[in-house]
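Entry 14. Structure prediction run on the chain below.
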Amino acid sequence: MLPDDALARMPAVPKGPTTPPPPADPCDPADTFRQARQARRLELVEDYVELIADLIDETGEARQVDIAQRLGVAQPTVAKMLKRLVAGGLVLQRPYRGVFLTPSGQELAEMSRSRHQIVEAFLRAVGVSPDTARIDAEGIEHHASDETLEVFRAFVARMT
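Output returned:
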C-alpha cells in the first residue's frame, strides 16, 4: 500500500495489484476506509490512462479537449490531472501534438482494460444485461482485489 502522501504527489505505476490488499485486521474500520480511499484515488488515474489509450487507438491521438469531453469535465480539470500524470511518469505531453502514454502508462491502461473485461464478462455470465454489465464493470474493476478478479475469471472460463 502506498503512503497517503505519495498519492498527493502522484504515484508511479503501482507495483502488483492496483487495489490494496485485504486489511491486516478486517475488524479495523480505519484500515478498511483508508484502503477504500486509496482505491478511489487510483481509480481516477486508471480511468485517465485507459481513456487516453482508447482515444489513441480510436483516433491516433489523445487531445485534452477530447479527454474533457469524454469525461464530462472542464479542460482545466483535465490539465491539472495531466500534470499529475506527467509527474507520475504515466504520460507525455507534446506541444501541439496531444498526450501520449509512456510504457508505464500503457502498462497501467492495459491492466485496467483487462480488469474491466474480466468483471464485465463475469457480470454477463451471471445474467446481467450487456449495457448494465459494461456500466457496472467501470466502477467494480477498480475496487476488486486480484483474488476476486481471479475467481471471476475462473468462473467465466468454466461457463464457456
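The first strand starts at residue 91 and ends at 94.
Filed with the rest of this week's runs.
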